[in-house]
Amino acid sequence: MKADENGRTGFFITGTGTGVGKTLVSALMTLAFDGDYWKPLQTGLAEDVGDTADVAALTGLPPERCHAPLYQFDALLSPWSAARRTGAHVDLTRISLPATKRPLVIEGAGGLMVPLNAGQLMIDLIAICQLPVILVVGTGLGSINHALLSLEALRRRKLPIAGIVMNGTPHADDAELILHFGGALPCAAIPHLPDLTEETLRTQAARLREIFSARQDTETTRP
Ligand SMILES: Nc1ncnc2c1ncn2[C@@H]1O[C@H](COP(=O)(O)OP(=O)(O)O)[C@@H](O)[C@H]1O
Ligand SMILES: [Mg+2]
Question: Which fold is adopted by the domain 10-214?
Answer without folding.
Answer: Rossmann fold (3.40.50)
